[in-house]
């Protein structure tokens, strides 16, 4: 960031995992939602399981 003239943000102290619910909402176009749901179904998993797997990798 310094190379392009931007300030590097200060390091933050990590929050304890217990503070997080494990849920967050992502809004996507209907067409993308349908595409992702079909892909999850093809893999035989729920859309939630599919998304969690993709986010973890």
Offer a few descriptive terms:
57 residues
Brief rundown of the structure:
The protein has 57 residues and is mostly helical. It is 40% helix and 0% strand. The protein has a domain at 28-57.
Furnish the topology, listing elements before pairings.
Elements lengths: L29 H13 L4 H10 L1
Helix pairs in contact: 1-2
Rounded to an integer in angstroms, the radius of gyration calculated over CA atoms is 17 Å
Helix- and strand-based class?
A: mainly alpha
Strand segment tally: 0
What is the residue-averaged pLDDT? 91
Query: What composes the largest sheet?
Result: none
Coarse shape: extended
Q: Approximately how much helix is present in the residues?
A: 40-55%
The secondary-structure element order is: HH
- Spatial separation of the terminal alpha carbons: 25 Å
Strand content: under 5%
Q: Uncertain segments of ≥5 residues (pLDDT<50)?
A: none
Number of helices: 2
């Amino acid at each position: 960031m310094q190379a392009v003239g931007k300030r590097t943000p200060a390091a933050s102290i990590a929050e304890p995992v217990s503070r997080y619910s494990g849920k967050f909402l992502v809004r996507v176009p209907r067409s993308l939602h349908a595409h992702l749901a079909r892909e999850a179904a093809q893999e035989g998993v729920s859309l939630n399981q599919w998304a969690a797997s993709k986010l973890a990798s």
